[in-house]
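Researcher: Structure for this, please.
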Amino acid sequence: MATLTDEIAATAARLVVEEGMEYGPAKRRAVRVLGRQRARSAELPGNDQVESEVREYLAIFCPDTQPRELAALRAIAAFWMERLAQFRPHLTGAVWRGTATHLNDVHLELYCDDSKAAELALIDRRVDYEVGSRPGPRGELVDVLSLAHTSAELGERVSVHLTVLDFDDLRGGLKPDAGGRSQRGDLIALRALMASA
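Model: Predicted structure, token format:
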């Protein structure tokens, strides 16, 4: 018999796939979809459980479309990683983990000696972008440079988010998660994934 945690995970997975939501917001919304105002922390599924449900949902409902969409998103990631190679780009998120659909954005992390250098590189290349921020690995706000990439394969514009981190953050960023899986990968690792697909 499914527990509330299992129901939240399955509902969150549907929201992740069908609406392109991130895991945290999807879990919170899943609680409301299931008719609850809130859930105790102990009742919320971990990201690993949600990811497992996402993979199952994709296998059942999207086996014909998702691999093509993922390949197109990974091609976009590779394009920008090549253009920004000097900033040690690493792909992360659903596109790296292999669970992305056309609704997902591409998330790259840039490990820079100078936090403004990536922004200057975009300006030099006449790339339109917007600047935002998010909490970094040490809790401080870091810049996120967001741009749009038109994908001929998908027939739509895809958002690419470049999180600008310090070069020193790279060492901690390469540590595997509790399941031993990497949370991000460089261009060489991405190309290996693309070749094996």
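Researcher: Any notable elements?
Model: Helices lie at 4-19, 23-33, 47-61, 66-83, 94-97, 117-124, 169-173, 187-196. The mean pLDDT is 92.
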